[in-house]
Amino acid sequence: MPVVRDLRVLLRLRDFRRLLAVRLLSQGADGVYQVALASFVVFSPEKQPSPAAIASAMAVLLLPYSLLGPFAGVLLDRWRRRQVLLHGNLLRAALAVGTALLIAARVPDWLFYVSALSVTGVNRFVLAGLSASLPHVVDGPQRLVMANALSPTAGTLAATAGGGLAFAVRLVSPGGAASDAMVVLVGAVLYLTAALAVLRLPIALLGPELPLPRAQFGLALTGTARGLAAGLRHLARRRPAARALAAVTVMRFCYGALTVTLLMLCRYTWTHSSAAGLALLGLAVGVSGGGFFAAALLTPWAVGRLGRLGWIGACAGAAAVLTPALGLPFRLTPMLIAAFVVGLATQGAKIATDTVIQSSVDDRFRGRVFSIYDVLFNAAFVSAAGVAALMLPHDGRSAALLITVAALYAAVAVAMAREVSRETRPPADGSGCFT
User: Fold this and answer.
1) Is the peptide bond prior to 141 cis by the omega test (within 30 degrees of 0)?
2) Cβ-contact 363, 231 below 8 angstroms
């Protein structure tokens, strides 16, 4: 199979394997940490969260550190990305230990959120650094689509596996806040291991190729606005990248709305206890992870036949049809199938978008563009949680929300079809035709 052949070629690249190991360990730790947060905020027996409470928690954890995105981009174009990965993982390990201590001490929720915010804030630098570094460890543009199919998807699967590890730790732990604290400590160990894995990469390998002049930290921050504006102007001149980024942002909004719906269904409709709800959510996350894995296998083949924008449109179109068809009964088995479909569509579109950006954006702007990408991703997810809070009843059953999501998916599919048609249309003067 071509996918297997390309995968073997990529895994022969020593530096690609090393960067992939950093991603797997880092995102595996993210999965552990996220399950601990979900358990503490949503599935603790003493808590009875509403959609509005879940949206508020997402806003606290995501929106403030999304503001770090522009700063991350400018600094990633100044700093050695290898050092960002090293120090970012070390800092997250230390902060995760602090979060575990706060959980065990049963401090007020606001103090817990501050600590969790610090961990996830550093995450912006690490994930943007991993994406911006990938072209430096792949031997040529032909392999970039496959690298994007493998690396981020493998990271997502590692996060899913980390979530499974977190569930396993909870099963053998005493329960309550002690269980959540123990899970966070496991995440801290994985963050530390990821930092050690970074040391295997040469310090100058990951770029930027032409680092901006070294400046004091304060001067770097004052130049952020100008750097962000330059990144936006550069992105605006790269029409395919801008269109793909807009499409995947709308799809991320849809994914966020469906995530909150699934949380409420697992917590109140399909189960009668917080423990059973958390276990069912773990199953749904695993099924969605299977969709991510399928996207990794299918996307290189699909991009070869449909093109990158065409594949994004196909993913959106499939989600537009199948999400309401499977979701409107609000039954467990069809909704799990929908989780697989949405996982495949979301990850397939993201792989194609990553490739469009990496292949059409200059390296010296890539950190900034990926940080803009990250900000849009988080803002879309939190906005979706807010909309879901307004539309969802307590049990998570809202036909209006599912139909709205389907309409947004359909709009993306139509927009991508028009963009593909525009790109393939011959020039008006006929110069693009054979005579």
Assistant:
1) no
2) no
State the burial class of residue 30 (Cβ atoms within 10 Å of its Cβ: 0-12, 13-18, 19+): buried
Written as one letter, the residue type at 413 is A
Q: What is the pLDDT of residue 365?
A: 80
State the Cα–Cα distance between residues 79 and 331, nearest whole angstrom. 49
Q: How far is CA 97 from the centre of its chain?
A: 24
Q: How many whole angstroms separate alpha carbon 48 and alpha carbon 22?
A: 37
Q: Where are the domains of the chain?
A: 7-208+217-423
Type of residue numbered 226 = R
Between the CA of residue 112 and those of 26, 40, 181, 237, 402, what are the distances in Å? 22, 10, 12, 42, 33
Question: CA dist 413 to 101, 188, 334, Å?
Answer: 47, 41, 23
Between CA 47 and CA 28 the distance in angstroms is 27
Strand runs labelled E in 201-250: none
Which pTM was predicted?
A: 0.74
Contact 258, 342 (CB under 8 A): yes
Q: pLDDT by residue (tens digit) across 6-63?
A: 677 888 889 999 999 999 999 999 989 888 877 777 766 556 667 777 776 777 667 6
**Residues in Cβ contact with 333 at an 8 Å cutoff, skipping those fewer than 6 apart:** none
pLDDT, tens digit (0-9, with 9 covering 90-100), for 227-265: 777 778 888 888 888 899 999 999 999 999 998 899 889
Closest CA to 135 of 362, 300, 312: 362
Strands (E), 172-306: none
Tokens, residue 78: 């100044």
Q: How far is residue 216 from each of residues 149, 221, 222, 223, 238, measured CA to CA in Å?
A: 37, 9, 10, 11, 31
CATH 3.20.20.70 for domain 7-208+217-423, yes or no, is no
Backbone angles phi, psi at 331, to 5 degrees: -105, 155
Residue 145 phi/psi, 5° resolution?
-60, -45
**Could you identify the residue written with the tokens 């970039």?**
144
- For 203, the 3-state DSSP assignment is coil
